[in-house]
Write a structure and sequence with these properties.
This protein is of the alpha+beta class. The chain has helices at about 10-15, 25, 60-65, 110-125, 140-145, 155-195, 325-330, 335-340, 355-360, 365-405; strands at about 5-10, 15-20, 30-35, 40, 45, 50-55, 70-75, 80-85, 95, 100-105, 150, 200-205, 210, 215-220, 225, 240-245, 260-265, 280, 285, 295, 305, 310-315, 345, 350, 360-365. The radius of gyration is 28 Å and the shape is elongated.
Length: about 425
């Protein structure tokens, strides 16, 4: 606890109320109202996309009414996770695994308290050992009430909360831009693979509408296929050959990720090593939506092979197809739907070499393939830029949260001009 600030118990500055028990009996009734569960309470914000409903009597509604500025703190699960209620939903209540904290005397700014709990529970482990340790760790009302928290001057609380909230708004803005750009990329891919870049009339084919000049050809006419080999991982990870696993298939852009590759102790012939431009397909996956996911190998400094859950397609003549064009095509919803529809359904969905050979793909001119790949690459680069900015802001937030809540840095000493990155007017798409 910062020595520069006086400390108080939580129940000295907040009234604490737990919500209504979720049970079959309590669900019966004609006054069905939405309520918050622990899954709706995230660090610093509420996820209201999916609300449960239960019967609330007039007495329940009066007792459990939420007011703007109330804090909701999780009793169990991710203990202490806290968010603020801002009247997002009319007549919405909360379950008994949530504590409602309402400022009692104006001595604590609720938003400052939110960030204090974020620091204390998530970052600083200030309250470590104060949770009831049962089958499910939990924070009872009585234990929450006795927790100490700092009480700097109200003006300092408000400045700290304002600065941290500004960083959070900047993070949210980057998340919105990532979501928007991802949707735009999806629409762009659909347009490019059905209309092309030359403004041509379309024709109907087995894979849907494509420009008149495009061919539609079996992939097997231009590529050779090979299944990966099932390996045993080297537990020490310091010898053997680097191996692409399914998790490495979800890299930046259209390429596989070369981070966290595992090694296998098995002699691997040259034919199982990857070459630049190889296409890799997820052959089988516990989740159906993962089947058929396609990435491209862009080369590495060390020999790399691939595991048995992957099929490699190697183009015979790379000047007939741009590997990146094919990779992006197989990531369209239409192409992935065709792959999953053609996959064998056993315990898990599978695709195989035979169906990949027969799979039809569009074949525009090589120049147009490269144009399409470049356009989608630009969208991926835009997404990557926003993700990097979001990561930088997350780092800034955690640093500020720690330093401000430990009073290592006082908000009055900060040159807020250094934080121009959080000014919303600079975050235009």
């Amino acid at each position: 606890m910062p020595q520069a600030w006086p400390a108080v118990r939580v129940d000295e500055v907040f009234t604490i109320q737990q919500g209504k028990q979720v049970s079959k009996r309590n669900r019966i009734g004609n006054n069905q109202r939405p309520f918050l569960r622990t899954k709706n309470v995230l660090w610093g914000h509420l996820d209201l996309t999916e609300l449960d409903h239960m019967h609330f009597s007039p007495t329940d509604e009066e007792r459990l009414a939420l007011m703007e500025g109330d804090l909701l703190l999780c009793e169990g699960g991710d203990v202490g996770r806290t968010a603020m209620w801002q009247n997002q939903v009319s007549r919405c209540y909360y379950q008994n695994h949530l504590h409602r904290l309402r400022a009692a005397n104006g001595e604590i700014d609720p938003e400052f308290a939110l960030y204090w709990f974020w620091h204390a529970f998530d970052l600083g482990n200030i309250y470590f050992g104060r949770k009831n340790v049962t089958t499910i760790p939990n924070m009872s009302k009585s234990r929450l009430a006795e927790l100490p928290m700092p009480k700097p001057a109200l003006s300092e609380q408000q400045k700290i909360a304002a600065l941290l909230s500004a960083v959070q708004r900047a993070i949210e803005q980057q998340e919105r831009l990532i979501a928007l750009t991802t949707e735009l990329k999806k629409a762009l891919m659909h347009k490019l693979f059905t209309e092309g870049t030359r403004g041509e009339p379309q024709k109907q084919t087995e894979i849907g509408p494509v420009p008149e000049s495009w061919e539609v050809v079996p992939l097997g006419n231009y590529a050779d296929f090979k299944n990966g080999i099932n390996f045993t991982k080297d537990q020490k990870g310091d010898s053997g050959i680097l191996t692409v696993d399914v998790l490495n298939m979800y890299g930046r852009g259209c390429s596989i990720s070369l981070e966290n590759l595992y090694r296998v102790k098995k002699k691997t012939c040259h034919d199982y090593l990857l070459k630049n431009g190889d296409l890799l397909f997820v052959r089988s996956s516990l989740k159906q939506e993962g089947v058929g996911w396609t990435s491209m190998y862009s080369g590495g400094s060390e020999a790399i092979t691939f595991c048995g859950f992957i099929i490699r397609a190697r183009l015979r003549q790379q000047r007939m197809f741009d590997p990146g064009f094919l990779t992006y095509y197989f990531r369209t919803e239409e192409a992935r739907g065709l792959l999953r529809a053609g996959g064998a359904r056993v315990a898990i969905t599978n695709i195989n070499q035979g169906m990949l050979k027969q799979t039809l793909v569009p074949k525009p001119s090589l120049a147009e393939q490269e144009e399409i790949k470049r356009a989608i690459d630009l969208a991926d680069q835009k997404i990557a830029t926003h993700e990097q900015q979001r990561a930088s802001l997350h780092g800034l937030f955690r640093t500020l949260l720690h330093q401000l809540m430990t009073a290592q840095v006082r908000v009055s000493d900060l040159d807020l001009g250094e934080f121009a990155i959080i000014k919303e007017e600079e975050l235009s798409p």
